[in-house]
Each structure stands twice: as structure tokens, then as C-alpha cells.
Amino acid sequence: MQKGFFTGFFIDMIAVGASFVLCVGIKPGTNSTYFSSYLDSFVLFLVIWIFSSFAFEKYNFRKAASWQSLITKILICNLFIFFLVTSIMYLFQSFNYSRFIVIGTVGVATLVELTIGSVYFTLLNTRVRYESSGELKLRNAGKLSFKQTSEITVPKKAIPKYDFQLRREYLKNEIGEEAF
Which residue, 50, 101, 166, 174, is most buried by CB atoms nearer than 10 A? Predict the structure, then answer.
């Protein structure tokens, strides 16, 4: 398994759980009854989420060739999960779950996945220009000893003279003689 696989999996589970808690918190009513009544349905939802994510290989960030393919993979997988869960809700009529909570949980989790996946993919594929090889080499290190000091000389540049007469003539033309 790849290095980022478990990290992606745990971040995804945290995102789905936090999305569920957020949607239950936003839904009007007493939240304690929602948590107890939707807990079994959330476990089923989480199992569907995990199996679908594994089937679509959503956690293989390094396998994605480009940023667009990563976004496409996440969106297709999450849309499949959404359609599967809503189909189960419609067909069996026994899936004790609110449409608002399903749409909100999938939507918020998708936004979190897209954000974290995009940042991870960008950081993974960032190239640094003029990067050193990791070794620190000093120029002329063999010629210098620690007792020897070398002076650094910076050539002084002459300060250009400013033509105040030219400035005075310009101001006379612009403002007139009253300025002086």
C-alpha cells in the first residue's frame, strides 16, 4: 500500500463524520433524537462510502496523472455514492435517513475532499527551481583557513548630480512664476 493511502482514508472518514455532525446540527429540531435515530443509517452510509471509495480507488492520490483527473475521480465516486444511497432510500423506503442529511453530508464531504486532495496534489507535484543537491559546498574552501580573513570590497558608486535648474524651468512652465 502507498504511503498516503491510510492518511487519505482517515481524513476521508473524519470528513464524512464531521459532515454528518454538521448536517445534523444544522437540521432544525432536537439534535439528540437525530443522532440516536440516524446512527444505524449513518453506519450503513459509511460502509457504502468506504466500499465505493475503494472500488473507485479514490485514495490513490499518487496514481492521478493530473489535478483534473484527481478532481474527476473524487466527483465521480461521490456522485456514485450519492446516487446509490438515494436509490436505496427510494426503493426500500426503510432507510431511516433525511434527504437533507444525505445531500449535506455528501456535499460537505465532497468539498472537503476536493480541497484537501487539491492541496495535497499541489504540494506533491511542486517543483522548486534552483534547488540545491543537499550538500553545502563553499567556493574556494580549500584556499581559506580559519585564521585567514578575507575582506569584502564593494565598489562605491558615484551619486549622480541632480539638475535643480532643469526642475526649476519645468515648474515655471507648469505653474508659472508665482510658485517662486
Answer: 101
The three three-digit cell numbers of residue 115, written as one number: 480541497
pLDDT the model gives residue 161: 72
Contact 8, 66 (CB under 8 A): no
Cβ atoms within 10 Å, residue 68: 9
Beta strand spans in the chain (E): none
| pLDDT of residue 136 exceeding 70 | no
Whole-structure pTM value:
0.63
**Over the stretch 4-32, which tens digit does the pLDDT of each residue have?**
667 778 888 899 899 988 888 887 776 66
The answer to whether the beta carbons of residues 62 and 56 sit under 8 Å apart is no
Polymer length of the chain: 180
Distance CA(49)–CA(54), nearest Å, equals 9
Do 24 and 31 form a contact (C-beta atoms < 8 A)? yes
If 0-12 CB within 10 Å is exposed, 13-18 middle and 19+ buried, where does residue 45 land?
buried
Residue-averaged pLDDT of the chain = 76
Query: Using alpha carbons only, how large is the chain's radius of gyration in Å?
Result: 32
- 91 residue type, one letter: L
**Does residue 116 come out as left (phi exceeding 0), alpha (psi in the -120 to 50 range) or beta?**
alpha
